[in-house]
Amino acid sequence: xxxxxxxxxxxxxxxxxxxxxxxxxxxxxxxxxxxxxxxxxxxxxxxxxxxxxxxxxxxxxxxxxxxxxxxxxxxxxxxxxxxxxxxxxxxxxxxxxxxxxxxxxxxxxxxxxx
Amino acid sequence: xxxxxxxxxxxxxxxxxxxxxxxxxxxxxxxxxxxxxxxxxxxxxxxxxxxxxxxxxxxxxxxxxxxxxxxxxxxxxxxxxxxxxxxxxxxxxxxxxxxxxxxxxxxxxxxxx
Lengths: 114, 113
Fold this sequence. Notes:
The complex is a heterodimer. Chain A is mainly beta. Chain A is built from no helices and 12 strands. In chain A, strands 2, 5, 6, 10, 11 and 12 form a 6-stranded mixed beta sheet that branches. Chain A has a 4-stranded antiparallel beta sheet with strand order 3-9-8-7, with no helix packed on it. By secondary structure, chain B is mainly β. In chain B, a hairpin with an 8-residue loop joins β9 and β10.
């Protein structure tokens, strides 16, 4: 079955500390992978996406993610977290030509301590 | 540039009532979709459209209806509201060449009593 898991429901980090949010997927076809961020009361914003090529992808707001096929993972990282990064983060997986097959993970809530 | 606009932002309904959630985008995007967001479950696709006049079902279509008469508008209709439809609803769009939702509205928080 196709699925996305985000093992951490909630993470708290101090401002300036590094961040890694975990994402694991199960997908039959070649996966297209995405990370979204949702600030309170708002819709989702696409942070970055991986289709092919370099397995380390850069996104907006200083985020990056690394695709590891052997581990079926696509973890999101940021070297130094800012208070404004506090939000909900969603990992998602899809296929090249299947708009309806984008599957979202349950999300990880990030809190930032000033 | 407004992006994706959803109305209303909040709504309370009684069981059995019907209503339409509005979604409009001004980016000339071909792809539009509706998701519902429930705690601990991420987003689940209700219906989507790959262009005007074309709609299809997503993962959880039961109890919902959509139409796409123009590129800009993609309304979602609840035919007979049920408490299980209490959720936050998001509309999203992406350009033709995109394969994933890129632009989201701010959501409609719907409560069914």
